[in-house]
Amino acid sequence: MKQSDSRDELALNFELGMYELGRDLYPKSRRVLDGLVTTYAAAGRHDDALRVAAELVQADPTNPRYHYNYACSLCCAGRREEAMQMLQKAVELGFDDFDYLTHDPDLEPLRDCPEFREYQKRALVQRSQRLKGVD
């Protein structure tokens, strides 16, 4: 293991510890839960990320980013069909980060699906409309 890898792992474990402490102190904080999902995923703890992502979607079913992160967690857990459904919901709710959607490694298993390309197109159109100020 390289020294930089060791430092990265140490930093990730520290961040994870901070978010877990934050969850203990503020169990309903969406900001803490959102950070916890991302950190669990980065640590390869996909079942934990999936569980917390589901909590966030339940807490705020209109937040497109929560649905997007849930889709990523489902995909990492090998639940591709459910991931695709959640990704569809994220885009329907307004998720429009085309670049992130296109390059997110968590969604790699979905890239060959025609539906995925449709979601990319829709996200791109939504982003363009948002930037132009069109509803």
Question: Keywords, please?
Answer:
single chain, 135 residues, mainly alpha, Serine Threonine Protein Phosphatase 5, Tetratricopeptide repeat, 7 helices
What does this protein structure show overall?
- The relative contact order is 0.09.
- This protein has one domain (3-132): Serine Threonine Protein Phosphatase 5, Tetratricopeptide repeat (Alpha Horseshoe), CATH 1.25.40.10.
- The protein is built from 7 helices and no strands.
- It is globular and about 40 Å long.
- It has 135 residues and is mainly α.
User: Per CATH, what is the topology?
Assistant: Serine Threonine Protein Phosphatase 5, Tetratricopeptide repeat
Helix content: over 70%
The number of E-state strands comes to 0
Structural class from helices and strands? mainly alpha
Note the run of SSEs as H and E: HHHHHHH
First-to-last CA distance = 51 Å
CATH class: Mainly Alpha
Shape: globular
The assigned CATH architecture is Alpha Horseshoe
Low-confidence stretches: none
pLDDT averaged residue by residue: 91
Number of domains: 1
Instruction: Compute the CA-based radius of gyration.
Output: 16 Å
Topology of this protein?
Elements: H1 3-25, H2 30-42, H3 46-59, H4 64-76, H5 80-92, H6 98-103, H7 114-132
Helix pairs in contact: 1-2, 2-3, 2-4, 3-4, 4-5, 5-7
Short description:
By secondary structure, this protein is an all-alpha fold. It contains seven helices and no strands.
